[in-house]
Amino acid sequence: MKTVITSSGENLMSSFDMRFGRAAYFCVLDQDSGNTEFLENVNKDDSHGAGTKVAERLIELGIQKVVSGDFGPKAKELLEKFNIQMVVLQNAGLTIDDIVGKMKN
Asked: Which residues make Cβ contacts (< 8 Å) with residue 18, sequence separation at least 6?
């Protein structure tokens, strides 16, 4: 299963980013192998529609779960349409490594 975690940076010590469409990076966690990969969010500075564009990109990547702090209504609708699980975390103090560790347990 591939899971995306919204991130402020491109390594495991980066802070969890509460924003979905405006997150700086996405940590892609392959829960089967435990491998992680960071992808830059090329849509983070778009004037509008960032969340929808990000959702479309994640669908293309075959992501099955997204961990973020919030999802806009259009992005949420699109993710639901493709049966992508959305996990909302309200703890802005976590690092990506903290979240990955909890998901592996």
From this structure: 6, 68, 69, 70, 89, 90, 92
CATH homologous superfamily for 2-104? Answer: Dinitrogenase iron-molybdenum cofactor biosynthesis domain (3.30.420.130)
Question: How far apart are the C-alpha atoms of 34 and 104, rounded to whole Å?
Answer: 8
Structure tokens at 28: 């892609």
- The CA-atom distances, in angstroms, between 102 and each of 37, 38, 97, 98 are 17, 18, 9, 6
pLDDT computed for residue 92 by the predictor:
79
Reported as a pLDDT band with limits 50, 70 and 90, residue 105 is low
Residue 37 corresponds to which amino acid? E
Beta strand spans in 1-105 (E):
2-7, 25-30, 36-40, 65-68, 85-88
